[in-house]
Specification:
Layout: H1 2-23, H2 29-34, E1 50-51, E2 62-63, E3 73-77, E4 81-86, E5 91-101, E6 110-114, E7 123-131, E8 147-148, E9 153-154, E10 159-164, E11 169-177, E12 182-191, E13 197-207, E14 222-227, E15 230-233, H3 236-242, E16 249-256, E17 259-263, E18 267-273, E19 278-286, E20 293-300, E21 304-306, E22 311-322, H4 325-334, H5 350-367, H6 370-384, H7 386-412, H8 417-431, H9 440-458, H10 504-518, H11 526-543, H12 548-578
Parallel strand pairs: 3-9
Antiparallel strand pairs: 1-2, 3-4, 4-5, 5-6, 5-7, 7-13, 8-10, 10-11, 11-12, 12-22, 13-20, 13-21, 14-15, 14-17, 16-19, 17-18, 18-22, 19-20
Helix pairs in contact: 1-11, 5-6, 5-9, 6-12, 7-8, 7-12, 10-11, 10-12
Length: 588
Amino acid sequence: MDTKRFIVATLLSALVLVGFEYFMPKQSHQEVAQQAGQTDRQTPPANGARAGAPLAGLSSQPVAVPPPQAETRLPIDAPKVSGSIDLLGARLDDMVLRDYHETVQKGSPQVRILETAHDPQPNYVEIGWMNLPGGQVRVPDAQTVWSSDAPKLTADHPVTLSWDNGQGVIFRIVVSIDAHYMFAIDQQVTNQSGQPLSLYPYARVDRAYTPTETGGYLVHEGPISVIDGRLDESSYKTLRTGATPPANTAWSKAGQGGWAGITDKYWLTAVIPQQDMAVTGSYGYQANSGAGIYQVGFIAQAATVVASGATATTSSHVFAGAKEVDLLERYEASLHIPDFWKAVDFGWFAFLTRPIFYVLDWLNTLLGNFGLALMAFTLLVKALFFPLATRQFRSMGKMRQLQPKVKALRERYKDDQMAMNQQMMALYKAEGVNPASGCLPMVVQIPVFWCLYKDLYITIEMRHAPFFGWIHDLSAPDLTNLFNLFGLIPWDPTVLSPFLQLGIWPILFGATMYVQQKLNPAAMDPAQQRMFQLMPVLFTFFMARQPSGLVIYYCWNNLLTMAQQLLIQHRMKGEIEKTPAIPATGRK
C-alpha cells in the first residue's frame, strides 16, 4: 500500500507540473521583468489599408487611407478614456485608458487600446452603411470627411457627425460615451432624394496586426462573439487560414442581437448591435502587403428602408476598455447584452472560477489588499476542508505510529509478497487506517488550485495589485533572484537560462513544503524517500515562474496545514498511547 500511495502522489505531482507547463503561457524573462501587459509591436500595413466592406456576402477591396491630420480629429475627453475620433472616415481609432499603465513603474505610459492604421498596432472601430447589391446610393467611405457639431466628445456632451452625399441623402452618426468605456452610437439616414432607398447598417472591429498572444491555453485572445446565446472563440490562425474570397469570411452566424469583437488578455474592443435586430456576425481576414487585417463585426440581415422625406435610425454600442468583471455584468444587465461577462475567460470551470473570484474581490474590498484577501481566502478554504483534513492527518498520524510494525512485516515476509500484502491489510484494518485517505484532500483541492491560478492570471482586478515589500504585482512572478544575491550582483542569470530565476517567495514555499514533509510519515523504500526529498526542490523552481499571489497563497496554506496537523497530532497522541499494542504479524 505504501507503494500505491507513492505512485498516486507521484502521478498527482507530475500532473500538476506537466499540466501547468503545457497550459501556462510561456513568458520570456524580459516580459516578466517588465511586468508588461502590452503585446509586442509589429510593422503596420505598408499602405495603411482599410476594408471597404466587412462581412459575409459583400465584396471587400482595400482602400488607401491618407495619414491622419490634426484638423480631422475630434477629441475625446471622458473620465476613464481620452483620445480622438478621425473625422476622415468617422473611425474610432485613438484611445488610451486613464486608469491603466503598461507597467508598475512610475511614469509608465497609459495603456493604448485603439490605434490608427498608421500606428504600430492598428486597432480601430468602423461604423457605416452598405448598399443593396447593385445599389447606386453614394455611402460614406474611407475618404469621407465628416463634420461635427461640437469641438469634442465628453461624457456630458454627445456629438453628431454629419455628411451630405450630394444626392439628397444626409448621413449622421450620433456618438455619446458614458463614465467608463461604452459608446452609444445612433446611425441616422435622412432621405431627401425624392425616392426610397435601402441600406444595410454595419459595425466592425479592425485589427491590422497579429499580436503576440500572452495567455497560451490559459486565456483566449482573438475574435470572440456571443450570438443567440452561444459563445464562439476563434484564433487569429483560424481567420488567416479559413478566410475565403471574395468576402474573405472565415466564420459567420445569423441571429438576433448579441455582441462580437477582439479580445486581449485584459482588454476588449467589441461592437454591440441593437438587441432586437436580426444580424449576421462574422470573422474575416484580408491579406495584403503588410500584416493583414482581421475583421470582426455585424451587418443587418434586412435592409433599412428609408422613404423619401423620412429619417431612419439604427442604434448600437461600442465597448473599448478594460474587462472589469463588475462593469461587464452591469452593462449586461442595463443594456441587455447577452453573456457579456464571458469576455473574461473564466473557462470550462466558470461555475467554480467565478465564485472564487467574487469571494476574493469581496475580501479585497474588505481588507484593501489582494494579498491579504488571498490569505483570508486560504482560511476559508481550510475551514471548508477541515473535516477532510482531520481525517487525513489522523490517518497519517496512525501511519507514522505503524511504521515499525510495517517494517517488521516487510522483513518477515520479504520473500512472499502476497502474504506480506495480506498481513499489512490486516494490520491497517485492525488499526482503522486507510492509506489512500491521505490523497483525498489533495485531489479535492486541485480544482481550487486551478481556479485560483486562473483568476490570478486572467482578471484585470489582480493586474498590478500590490502586496507588501518588493511584491508590486500579484499577477506576476517574484522578480527577486537568489542567483544574483537578490540584486547585490549586477547580473541577470536568466540570460543563461530562464530556470535561473528563483525569488524569495518561491524559496519560502520550498522551505515550508520541506518542513511539511518532515511531519508526514516517511516512505519505507529508500528510492521513494529520495523522490519525496527531491519534490520540494522541483516545486520551488516550478513556483518561481508562477504569479507571486499564488506562491504567497501556498506558503500561507502550508503554514496553516502544518499548524493544523500539529494540533491534530497532539490531540491524537494520548489516544494512540492508550491503544493496545498489536504484534508485528498483524494478529491479535
